[in-house]
């Protein structure tokens, strides 16, 4: 076995196609162990098939690189300029997705146990050069005194030593922040991150700060992706689509939704993607966009419409894509070929089954067309509402009004669901170059089946948006 194959098996936890079982002592055999070989299960064969297919070409990882330290500093400078334009004195956040965006530290990096009650805050202020007028970020941290050493060890990108304001356990941390960072200033307006917990905001309000919610130019900083971010989003989302494509021809009738989840997850782990979410829904289970409690046991057939909505993490960025498809038709299966060779005729589907299959194909095409029309609206200065409306009109005009039951999409970045949100009521948000969105129209027929297509679109400076999740779906057999 090659070193690469060993790494793949280690990453996926997969066993070889033939597994060896050790047989203990038996009568007449003394204490010597004998080895017998057992054929792999259907799921194991499908998993190996899927891993092999995906690992044939990992082109989508070629341009993905970890975000460099300089970019985190640049992001904070962009934030400072947005604060200055907005007339805000500082931005306050605690470990979470936004902290990760500006300082490369996630909530779990800081607190692997659970979010705790002791405030650890990052404060970014705009610092204006009186000579040039240039605005730079001044970044400080409020931390418990006994944690200051750990804060320094986190490796937060900075120019020089971190500016850490410490507070003892018997002090008021918010008053300490007010006295040490904003001493002598009467009115201090702080914008707080959308993820910050309520008790922290109340603590700031009670100690002389005016707090305002996230919005405007400050929110737009994270919404607008850098070239490095685009490449990471391209890698993780295209890779997830390619993983679904690699797995599809390996699936067989008789498998369950739960088996498909396991196969896809382990396939993605084989290339270094981290698990996030994986929703596999078959037939009427997919009539609820995210399924229900009683999913997992639905058995696949050649006529099953399978909906997979999946997301994984790679180098800190998220995928969120969806495909709806059939497994290979009976004519391509080994069983059917054998029966045909023996002169055994395949069963003719009933009229009802034929009509249902025809409607699945029709709905699949309508949803794809809805996504196509939405894609044309991802232009600078288009409203978020206009993108949703474009997709919804296609579905309504096709006679399926009321079956597209959710918004068209959302922003995506280090977090799978980010602002702005694409719904038909969001007329205020205007799209900007560099914004990235999901476009995920769907049709859901209760008690029958559901279809959704989801890809990632990048708004460009000029011209139509770019799909950065790879090739769009072509047919239910080529998703």
What does this protein structure show overall?
With 479 residues, the protein is of the alpha+beta class. Helix content is 35%, strand content 21%. The strands form six sheets. Strands 6-5-4-3-7-8 form a six-stranded mixed beta sheet. β10 and β11 (317-318) form a beta hairpin. It is elongated, with a radius of gyration of 27 Å.
Outline the secondary-structure elements.
Layout: H1 3-12, E1 18-23, E2 34-39, H2 42-55, H3 69-86, E3 90-93, H4 97-103, H5 107-110, E4 121-128, E5 135-144, H6 148-153, E6 164-167, H7 173-181, E7 188-192, H8 198-205, E8 209-213, H9 216-223, H10 227-247, H11 257-269, E9 274-282, E10 306-314, E11 317-318, E12 321-325, H12 334-341, H13 351-375, H14 384-400, E13 409-411, E14 418-422, E15 436-439, E16 442-445, E17 449-452, E18 455-458, E19 466-467
Parallel strand pairs: 3-7, 5-6, 7-8
Antiparallel strand pairs: 1-2, 3-4, 4-5, 9-10, 10-11, 10-12, 13-14, 15-18, 16-17, 18-19
Descriptive keywords:
479 residues; alpha+beta; six-stranded mixed beta sheet; four-stranded antiparallel beta sheet; 14 helices; 19 strands; 21% strand; disordered N terminus; Peptidase M24 domain-containing protein; Pept_M24; Peptidase_M24B; Creatinase/aminopeptidase-like
- Unreliable stretches covering 5 or more consecutive residues: 1-37
Q: What level of helicity do the residues show?
A: 25-40%
- Large-scale geometry: elongated
Strand order of the largest sheet: 6-5-4-3-7-8
Alpha carbon gap, first and last residue: 32 Å
The rounded Rg comes to 27 Å
Largest sheet entry:
6 strands, mixed
Instruction: Estimate the strand proportion.
Output: 15-25%
The secondary structure category is alpha+beta
Count the E strands: 19
How many helix segments? 14
Overall average pLDDT? 90
